[in-house]
Specification:
single chain; 0% strand; DUF2164 family protein; DUF2164
Length: 81
């Protein structure tokens, strides 16, 4: 897996969410620099867990849709003589 790379806009929006969380839930002010380091840590250390879960979810959806397609194809079969 490659490193998780976010656009500058995604980083800025996420940093603001981290700062808001710290302020509202923990009553602590952290700066943008600290919040961005925390984001980097989560992306590096915890991101792969969420990434892998996303892959598993996608695989399950794909398998379900493939089974549905298989049934649809079977319904199209014509009786042979």
């Amino acid at each position: 897996m490659q490193d998780i790379e976010l656009s500058r806009d995604q980083i800025e929006r996420t940093v603001e969410k981290i700062k808001s969380y710290f302020e509202e839930e923990l009553q602590q002010d952290i700066g943008g620099f600290e919040a961005e380091f925390l984001l980097d840590f989560f992306a590096r250390e915890i991101g792969p867990t969420f990434y892998n879960r996303g892959l598993l979810d996608a695989q399950q959806v794909f398998t379900q849709k493939a089974e549905e397609l298989s049934y649809t194809i079977q319904e199209l079969e014509q009786p042979e003589l």
